[in-house]
Amino acid sequence: MSDRAPAGQFLDAAIGLLRRVRDEEADSIAAAGTLLSDTVENGGRLFAFGAGHSSLAAQDLVYRAGGLALMNLLAVPGAVGVDVMPAPLGSALERVDGLATAVLDNSPLRAGDALLIISLSGRNALPVEMAMTARALGVRVIGVTSVAYATETKSRHSSGTYLKDHCDLVLDSKIAVGDAELTHDKVPAPFAPASTVVTSALLQAVMATTAAALADRGIEPPLLRSGNVDGGHDWNARVMDQYRDRIFYRH
Q: Which residues does residue 72 pair with via DSSP β-bridges, in sequence order?
């Protein structure tokens, strides 16, 4: 570790990753915005899924001030967050074959919808099966993952494949295997994960691209406003009523 304070080192590392995403994923971000705006224009619905800490970036898209009202969370009980007890159960569920298919069979997803699947490693059965099954249903899939894991780890899906292998479009978060940006000669393990910061920023860049693409087509983006600004609740009520057949978190 250098003489610079750990906080500054971590922020520099996160900024470096964000710059890489900005520069290296620009075309993929633009393509994702086009895919999502096409879905909205054609009457499709939008969903996001992530397991464990990857679910944080998915949740950040749903019912979000400044975000698209049509983005719904596809939840897998026990795998959405870190409030599962005991905590290792959530990780174990990510490795269960058949779970993703059961979830999709009981979800509102249908052909013509779009699904964002967020998985840092992309190696577990749940995100791989989720992508495979969703695409078989006619759902467009955008995978958000660290492509490096596919060359440095072994898949935990029976096919030996990764999330990136079953997507219409892949967004690479550039996160190194292990998701820890700092080391210290007196600390036995690397520390300071940046995946949540980078993945959330990457996805918000996609949402911004989608909103602008819709506006460029003459379509008012179905955006939510903060409930803490005057008129925000009335605005949101109008948007939710207009798109009530495509919003599933209000029922």
A: 47
